Request: fold
Amino acid sequence: MDRKKFLKKVGLGLSLVAGTQFMTSCKEKEDQPNAEDCKLTGSDILGPYFVANSANIVNLNTLNFPGTPMMMMGKVYSGEGTNTPVVGAKIEIWHADDGGAYHPEGSGDVSDYEPAEITLRGFVLTEADGSYAFQSIRPGLYGSRARHLHFKVTVADHDDLVTQTYFEGDNRIPEDSFAKDAGDCRIVNYTDDGNGGIKGVMDFNLAK
Ligand SMILES: [Fe+2]
Reply:
């Protein structure tokens, strides 16, 4: 059993235990790691920094900002708990720089900004097997938020998904009112890429 399936199973077990067998305290419930069942990828807030019509690029770090190189990859699946790939899904990504600032720190449309103001955002499309990949740098921290990436996934015949992913081991997660609901399904385990960077895998299941 792979790690994700294992976590899914453990999480389901915890939910059943919490719901039916034991009267846990509020504190204990808050500490439970799995608020989602992962069959469909959960949504999260859009936040104030979504800019529409960003470019189709593989390396989001177009201005070569300093930071820890980060590779992300995964697949987009159709429907609840399936492994049915979705081809041509548009995955828009945006995140903060190493110092926690967005570029731009605003919303609207790319045409509202100068090209030099726009980076660490863009989109990729899924391949025939549902796969995607992109490069960037690890997002920095800002405010009281846990470290995160923003995603908007859109494709015909499926509900739009606006969500965020988090970083396993980030001790801000339990204190972040959005991150703490993510469950293990949106907390990504990043590993060393052997070149001073990190790589992580995030799959999405879209509702039909
Ligand atoms: Fe954010």
